[in-house]
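CORE FACILITY INTAKE
Project code: CF-77B
Contact: R.S. (postdoc)
Sample description: multi-component assembly, two entities in total
Requested service: structural model of the whole complex
Turnaround: standard
Below are the sequence entries exactly as provided by the requester. Do not edit them.
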Amino acid sequence: MNNKLKNYEIHDVAGTHFLVNVSQRGDVFEKPLEINEFGAYVCKYLKDGKSSDEIAKILSEEYEAEYDEVLKDVNDFLNVLNEKIV
Amino acid sequence: MKRSSDELLYNSIKWFLYPEKRDSVSFDDYTSEDIEKTIKTAKGHVVAPFIFDAFTQSALKEKVNETYLKELTYTTKQTVIQSYRLIFLTKYVCGLLKENGIDTVVLKGIAAAREYPEMLYRKSGDVDLYLLEKSKEKEAVEVMKNAGFLFFEEDQKENHQTVLVSRDGIKIELHTMITEPFSDKRANERIALFEESIKDYAGNVNIWGSDFPVLQRGAFAFTLLLHALQHFMRAGFGIKLLCDMAALFENGLNDKEKETYLYLINDCLLTGFSKVILSVCVYYLGIDKDKVPHELCEIEKCDAFLEDVLKAEEFGRNDVNRMAVVSGNGLWGYFKEFHHQMKLSFPKASKVFIIIPVLWVITLVRFLINNKKVRKTTAAEIFKNAGERSKMARELEIFER
């Protein structure tokens, strides 16, 4: 997933987080993916090279939530992301 | 007459354009009616995203009706997604042409948007590219057709551009002239000289790791001014073009860019037009007057000009009586403009002297039919409006020696 996200940037525009493939050629448009704040954090940490366990640990502290629940959310988000991005 | 809703529009635009000056903008005294009118005006001028930040981040957000806010948010997000589409398409087309030895520069689009604090908020509908070598127009069209872009004969209406369409319906205009010809011969000759030397001003700007070909900012400012003039001489233009100039000049031109701009506007007899546009940007859109490379004009002249811009909406589409500005005086002025419009409609045929009277008749008949069926107005109304706007053009000393 880290490698997949290499070409992506998170843009905060119009009160929304967009995950954008900035390396796309442009002939076929890969529409930016709208993600929520949680997703934006996950992407940011993934791009920083963190594992899903490490991300869950950081976010469980940030959101004051149970580690196991956050880990499940992180993994669910990554599964969705895996399907959506090239 | 100054309206508080217009003032709210300018203040909201200032809030967006100059984040560092936000403390000087107050939103205390506006009513919900002002807010409603401002959103409507901003939409008409396709600058709704420019007021989004003020309406969602300043004290205004408490006063905005939820439905309006949802609508504004939707419009802004749609503009952002469309901007992404156009930026990547621009990158693709410029790259494709470059790979085939055809150099371009981006007109408007990303070249103007990059001057804004948030470039994705600038609404655009197509991609405009200028071919640095006019002789490569046919070659460029072939390259694009081979890459799957569509070419429709009925799209090719004007004499200085070729229009192609991407598979998802976005127009790409390949220009061989920076602007359509004006009725002033000397100005056209000087603009043609600028076009001949335009390669000297071409460079690249890097956005998200990719290079986009653009003009040096002084020359680019001049092309924006010509674009504004082209629309002013027809039906007018809206606030977005003023914002383009404001964003560009507020960022500041360096000495070389200023020198280029001053030389070009002086050479093409457009100093008066530049003065009124940049003065409006200072008085109403809040740019620092020290960033304007020439003197300002009196505020009364700016008021009248801004009123014309406000009425126009985007490219004059809000006023059916607007068609053209007449640069000369009296009947002769109207005739000259009519002849000029005929030449724009029939760029090739009008070179054949003997058929010119026939082309005049066709132009006149089209004009009358369009007034009745499309614009639903009368020739008298159009002449009246042209007369009023022409008076303003003369006061701005456009093309005057």
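Facility notes:
- The CA atoms of residues 338 and 364 of chain B lie 8 Å apart.
- Chain B touches chain A at residues 49, 52, 56, 73, 76-77, 80-81, 84-85, 87-93, 95, 118, 120-121, 147-148, 168, 208-210 (CB under 8 Å).
Invoice: internal transfer
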